[in-house]
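Q: I have 102 residues here and want to know how they pack in 3D. Can you give me a structure?
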Amino acid sequence: MSVGGLAYIACGVVVAVVAVVVFMKFDAEAWIAKDLKRGDLHALIEVASGVRPDGLSREQARRLAARGMVRGYGNGNYRATIKGRLALRVRQAIRQTAQSPP
């Protein structure tokens, strides 16, 4: 095996270790709820499901748009972005994990 090949393997191992450390310290609940208030995520669920695309108050829309979770279109209607949908999926996974028996 050449020196270049060993260097690639060493770099891959370092990247893997760094990724594991970062993911172990990642607090998904804090990431989801950062700068949001009570009811914002429920409103995001309604927007993401299409039930109420106009279901956000101005303040909710401002907070969710600042986080990149919704995008406004038309006259007071909103759509959930990929980031918003991802936040809802992560939240759902966290809740399912917490509810499952040990």
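Q: Anything worth noting?
A: The chain has a mean pLDDT of 85. Residues 35-99 form one domain.
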